[in-house]
Design brief:
The protein is an all-beta fold and 174 residues long. It is built from no helices and 14 strands.
Length: 174
């Protein structure tokens, strides 16, 4: 199913329980997806529209076949039970624009093994299942360090999974 460009909103529980819905293309014109819109569907992959600031409660709850979620930069919040019981999810990368994730957003996602999230994001305790590795990234662009006569420009990769000394450094004499 491909929704046409220009669609701005998907109503609350609009596709609730649609077992035939395994694939949907959401246009970037969408700015609102109501609570429970895709609950208990058979979606396998989802790309969140760039205009959507908040992933509401229960939006994808019970989508057991969901294995891939792309959350674009610009999304700000992930609310309660947004991905509850999405047992197919094993990894998710959350962009630096997300500033809040509710404690129940990924509840019962027992196969979730890796999450990448910003250090600046408020992540409530118990958000991710036991055994899940959480890696943090930073919004910082470059760090400039000066030691006496040596100036180092450390260029950070988009994801900071490595400690600071392991990052690429260009040393310049000043």
């Amino acid at each position: 199913l491909a929704l046409p460009d220009g669609v701005r909103s998907i109503g609350r529980c609009a596709f609730f329980g649609c077992k035939w819905l395994s694939n949907i293309v959401l246009p970037d014109s969408i700015t609102d997806i109501g609570s429970g819109a895709f609950t208990n569907c058979r979606l396998t992959t989802v790309t969140i529209p760039t205009g959507l600031a908040s992933i509401e409660m229960n939006t994808f709850s019970g989508c057991n076949n969901l294995t891939s979620v792309v959350i674009p930069d610009g999304t700000i919040r992930i609310l309660g039970n947004a991905f509850n019981c999405c047992s197919g999810l094993t990894e998710i990368i959350i962009p630096a624009s997300v500033t809040y994730i509710d404690a129940t957003a990924f509840q019962s996602c027992y196969e979730l093994r890796r999450v990448v999230v910003s250090r600046d994001c408020v992540v409530e305790e118990g958000t991710f299942p036991e055994g899940c590795v959480v890696e943090y990234h930073s919004r910082m662009e470059d760090v400039v360090l000066t030691f006496g006569f040596i100036r180092m420009i450390i260029t950070q990769p988009p994801l900071m999974a490595l400690p600071l000394p392991a990052m690429k450094a260009n040393c310049l004499q000043i």
